[in-house]
Specification:
Blueprint: E1 10-15, E2 20-24, H1 35-38, H2 42-46, E3 51-56, E4 59-60, H3 68-77, H4 85-102, E5 108-115, E6 123-129, E7 135-141, H5 167-175, E8 179-183, H6 195-210, E9 216-226, H7 228-238, H8 240-243, E10 252-256, H9 274-278, H10 290-293, E11 301-308, H11 313-328, E12 333-341, H12 344-347, H13 355-366
Parallel strand pairs: 4-12, 7-8, 7-9, 9-10, 10-11, 11-12
Antiparallel strand pairs: 1-2, 1-3, 5-6, 6-8
């Protein structure tokens, strides 16, 4: 059951380029026109001032289910988060590491460092529930601002010396009846566009060949990407130039706070890393940005943002959401996690704050 801080649905005007979100009650129209019909004039899209009335839910995350010390510190970090995303992001992960070390892991077999390619980064871990047989597959791709990150995130190590971040997501899904996969991909600046997106395809190809021996169903692969991982997932899933005529080979994607636009703006703390992956020719950035071609895809898509996200990632996510609403004549699933920052959204998986996990499972079960 979905928990909401507002009525389950409401009109939300999204003015993408202005970072403005203003609520309007359901059923209220603007001067005799329906809000939806008034919001999709072509000239608005062309000007990139996209005003849409969208049915979506604003969900209150279950942070009240976390230990009180984590609740308190997270509430102190969140208002400061964007002032120093590296400092407060690391602190958030370290806040969760001791909790994640104590959360349930029993009944899950882990097969580490299966190679899906020749590069040292082209490895994945498989999380297999006991008695796995023909299970849907959830594949998780970490973030890292294009040039860093790993499936075994060393920024948050528990007292027993294990990396808990990212692994927590796969333990959660394996415990709930999925074959879990935690995958690495090649990083910039050594490997440039579209290498990381091609690695997403490499993982999919490996699963098509190997999933059955772990008890997975290769016809039911769902990709989850967070931050930069969401960029690479979206590029593979949505761009025919990358996945080719055979298609992406997956049943759906979850994009969590994705860097869905190549945009090296000076006021983005990670903007300087964009040329290291996408190259220095900025004229190529639009065609390499999933926000500009993702709406052409009909693949089931779930878009997630945090209340306190990395600068502009929530905007890029909202822009893709808006374009998908127009292209599909219905909106994809969307979730804004209240009370969470960019790092705590997925760090909370496999804890008692399990709203995100519940929503992802429901998305997979419903196929939308």
């Amino acid at each position: 059951m979905r928990t909401t801080s507002q009525p389950p649905t409401r009109w939300i005007w999204l003015i993408i380029s202005g970072r403005m979100f203003a609520s309007v009650q359901p059923g209220v129209a603007a001067k005799g026109k329906s809000a939806r019909s008034a919001s999709i004039q072509p000239w608005m899209i062309g000007a990139r001032l996209v005003a849409l009335s969208l049915w979506c839910s604003v969900a209150s995350a279950q942070t009240s289910n976390l230990p009180e010390d984590i609740q308190k510190r997270l509430s102190e970090i969140n208002p400061l988060y964007q002032s120093d995303i590296n400092k407060y992001g690391r602190e958030t992960l370290q806040l969760f590491a001791p909790l994640l070390a104590t959360e349930p892991k029993a009944g899950v077999n882990v097969f580490p460092d299966e190679a899906y390619g020749a590069d040292p980064k082209q490895k994945l871990d498989v999380y297999q529930p006991q008695s796995a047989n023909n299970l849907p597959i959830v594949v998780y791709f970490h973030g890292g601002a294009l040039t860093s990150g790993d499936k075994n995130d060393r920024r948050a190590i528990s007292k027993n010396g294990t990396s808990e971040i990212s692994a927590n997501a796969l333990y959660y899904f394996a415990r709930h009846g999925f074959l879990g996969v935690n995958a690495n991909y090649r990083l910039a600046p050594k490997h440039v566009y579209p290498a990381a997106a091609q690695d997403i395809g490499g993982v999919v190809a490996w699963l098509k060949e190997n999933a059955k021996r772990f008890g997975g169903n290769p016809e039911r692969i769902y990709l989850i990407g967070r931050s930069t991982g969401a960029l690479h997932v979206a590029t593979w899933a949505f761009d025919p130039k990358i996945h080719g005529a055979s298609g992406p080979g997956v049943a759906g994607v979850v994009l969590i706070s994705g860097r869905l636009k190549a945009d090296s703006r000076a006021d983005d703390p990670n903007g300087s890393r964009i040329p290291q992956y996408f190259g220095t020719d900025a004229s190529l950035y639009p065609e390499r940005s999933p926000v500009n071609f993702g709406a052409q895809s009909t693949l089931p898509t779930f878009i997630v943002v945090a209340e306190f996200d990395n600068p502009f990632l929530d905007v890029y996510s909202a822009e893709l959401f808006a374009k998908m609403c127009i292209a599909r004549s219905r909106c994809p699933r969307f979730l804004r996690l209240v009370g969470h920052n960019h790092q705590s959204t997925t760090a909370s998986l496999n804890t008692n704050d399990n709203l995100l996990g519940q929503e992802i499972i429901d998305f997979i079960r419903q196929g939308k």
